[in-house]
Each structure stands twice: as C-alpha cells, then as structure tokens.
Amino acid sequence: MASRRDIYQSYQFTVQRVVSGLVLRETDPAQVPLRRLGGTMFASIMVAVIALAITGVIGVINPGGNKTWKSEGKVIVEEDTGAQFVWLKNPETGEFLLHPVLNLASGALLVGTSQIVEVSHASLEGAPRGPRLGIPDAPDSIPPTDDFLTGPWTLCSLPAQTQSGELVPSTALVVGRERSSGIPIDDSIAVVNDIEAGAVYLVWNGHRFLAADPTAVLTGLGLRDVPQIEAGTAMLTALPDGGTLAPSAPAGRGQPSSTASGLLVGQIVMTSSGSDASSYYLVLDEGLQAISEVQALITLADPTLSTAYPGAAIEAIEIPAAQANQLPHDQLGDPQFSDPPRVPPAPALVQGKTSTICASFSSGTAEIDIAVEAQVEGADTATATPQRTQNGAVLADQVLTPSGSAALVRSVMSPTAEEGPLYLVTDEGRKWAIPDDEALQSLGLTSVEPVLMPASLVARIPEGSALDKKAAGTPS
C-alpha cells in the first residue's frame, strides 16, 4: 500500500507533466519549466544591487551632486522650488558666491544672458551664499524672440460701468492687435468730449484739434447737433496734436483798415474766380490774411464778431478777385499732414455719447486708423493700471499684451524719427526702459526688431524701473 509520501510525490510529478505540457508542449522535457526565467530574475536583481552600490559610493565621494552650473554662466533655476540664482565673483575677495535673484531679468543682466540651467537642490548645497540681488519690479519672464509682437497697437475709449451703474469712458490699450470691428472715419470728423479735462476736441486725419471756443467751432462747422463721444484724457493725449481751433480776433478789430478801403479789421472777405473754390481772407490793418474756409466759418460764428460788423449781417463779404490782388495779401501754403481741415468735413457716423472710438497705430507710419463704434479683442479683459503716474501723467486705464508675448518698442517723437528710448513691454501690462546695448544683449533681444510708436502712445503704459545692470546688482 502507497504511503502519503509516495502519493505526494506522485501528485507533484503529475502537476509537473501538466505544466510542461502547457508551457513547452512536451510532457517530459529535458529541463524544468521556467528555470530560465528564474535565472534571469536573479541576474537582474544582482545588477540592480550593484548599480545601487555604485551610486552610493559616488554619493559618498561627491555628496553635492552636479556642479557644472558653476562654469556655464547662466541663470540658475532650482528644479524643486523655481528659485533663481546667479554665481558671481566677489570683486573684492575674488570668491565666487551663489546669489539669490529677485527675477529672471535681474539674473540675466548680471550674468549677461537670459539662458537658464536647471539644477537640483542637492547640487546647490554647500555653495557659499551671497546677498539677494535684483531689481524688485523687473519682469520675471522674457518670452522667446518668436513671441514678440510686431502688429499694430490699438487704443480704445470704451464705456465702463461703475458700481453705481453709471457708464463712464475707460481707455484700453491693446498691444499687437488691430481693431476687430468699427466704422472708419476716413475723411469725416468726430467730436470728442474729454470729460476729465472738460475740453472738446475734433478728431480728423489721425490728429486731435482742441476747440478753444466750442460754441463758435461747432456752430461754424455745423456740428452743434452731432453726438459728442465721451472719452478720457488718455485717449485724446495719445493722438498727435494738430493744434487749436478758435475764431480769429486780430488787434484793432472793428477799426477801419489802413490799406483796405471800406473794410474793417476783423471782417471776413471772400473772392470767387469762375469754377474755382472761393478764397477767404481776414481783414487786417496792413492788408489781407489768407485763411481757410474752416477758419472763416469758425470766425463768423464768434458771437463777439459783431464789433467788426456794426449794424450789418455777420457774413463773408464778397469782393472782386482783382480788388483783393491789389491789396497786400498772402496765400495759403501747401497743406501739411498735421494741419486742420481747410473745408468742413462731414461728421462721422456716431450713435451717441457712449459710442466707442479706437485708434490703431502701425510701426513707423504717420497713418492712424481711427474708427467709431469700434472694438478690439481683449480690451475688456486688459490689466488695470494705476491710471496716473506719481507725477500726475495720465495712463491708459487698462493695458493688454496677449499672454505669453511681449513687445520691444522704440518711443519716437515723429513718424520719421528712428531714435528714441527703447522699452520692453510684457504681458504684465507694464514697460521697462532698456538703457543700452549691453542690457539689450543680456536680455537676449538683439535679434528683435523694435516697433516704432509715438511717444504720446507709449507714455500711456505704466513704467517700471530701468533694466540696468548696476541696479540689478544692488542687494535687496
């Protein structure tokens, strides 16, 4: 009779044959199934143990980790925390110290490059530390050069709702985008009321013209019943100044002219010659001064002009061209780009005082695209500004540079100018002056072509501290 031992061995033998048949398709193989797998597993474990032992020995010999960052001359970023450092030589002791820096721009200015090297915390252990350095408000991110914007800058006056529900104008500047909608005013004219300064302007041909006497100016040009767009000072001061529109009031108005018999100083005369447009003149004591039709109409609308027309209708007096030519007179010169219109323009298609107005500025050109009932994408989500500088200069209420992008801009006094202060504008909605070529190179921006924008527009952006190497090296 079989013992329990015999029965158990018989069972093991049977199971072994079944496994062999399933795995090797042979019930009586020369080798035991899975023997190779066990050997492979044992070998792998031994390799892992040896690798760990080697790593441990290296850790004992060189516990500080990677030290190549000391010779790379880049901004050092700690992988675990994102903290930024620079490895600088102390000019007094000659010792190298690891300085924490407040932001990437400060680090770049100190080491001469915006490139970074990421290292572990262990790699920085044991390095002698120096004081924290940097410009407190400098940018902490500088986008790649491919992400710098070269498109138009658009400034808009948009209605914004106050906590009380009142609609007031708000000025938004969007960098790198042209307007997304609107009706171009082209050759027409818009009446804009600066509610902050209490002044009325006419906007025409990309310029603003102050109406020094709004009643005379609007009445003379037939604009009294035209809706006035309410805007802020930041919107209007960004436009090039075309000068002032006001009635002409020469000295001695109402007195007989010494040279123009029968005419009084301050009167308006006109001549016509066939199909040509009429010529207008202001009567002076010494002769006739050529003026535009617009200036003539504004002057005739001056309620104080009655002194020059005693007992007579206030209107232009028509005289023969030959008579005008016999009197001392001048001629209107060729119109300049910044001059006011010479003939009354048609009013722009404005719906009401809360209508929007936008001006798009392109790099290096005097042409400004102005449109009413206009919008620009992102203006309503732009970053709020302090609205005024510490010196009282007016800023745009909001500034938007699309996220992850920036602009390099040169602030110029005229469209033909090529020199002027250089600024970095980031998606923080602020600008920083770049004082010299060394700073430009350190920030990695030498390959970026700056856009040229009017100084009056660039001044609407809040300004941070200049990106200066000396300032970056100041302990904070």
From TrEMBL:
Report the membrane topology from the UniProt record: Single-pass membrane protein
Membrane-crossing ranges are: 41-61
GO MF assignments = ATP binding; hydrolase activity
Q: Where in the cell is it found?
A: Cell membrane
What InterPro entries has UniProt attached to this entry?
T7SS_EccB, T7SS_EccB_R1, T7SS_EccB_R3
Asked whether the keyword Secreted is assigned, the reply is no
- Pfam families xref list: T7SS_ESX1_EccB
Q: What is this protein called?
A: Type VII secretion protein EccB
Keywords noted in UniProt? ATP-binding, Cell membrane, Hydrolase, Membrane, Nucleotide-binding, Transmembrane, Transmembrane helix
PANTHER family, per the entry: ESX-2 SECRETION SYSTEM ATPASE ECCB2 (PTHR40765)
Task: Kindly list the GO CC terms recorded for this protein.
Answer: extracellular region; plasma membrane
Q: What is its main location?
A: membrane
Question: What family is it from?
Answer: Belongs to the EccB family.
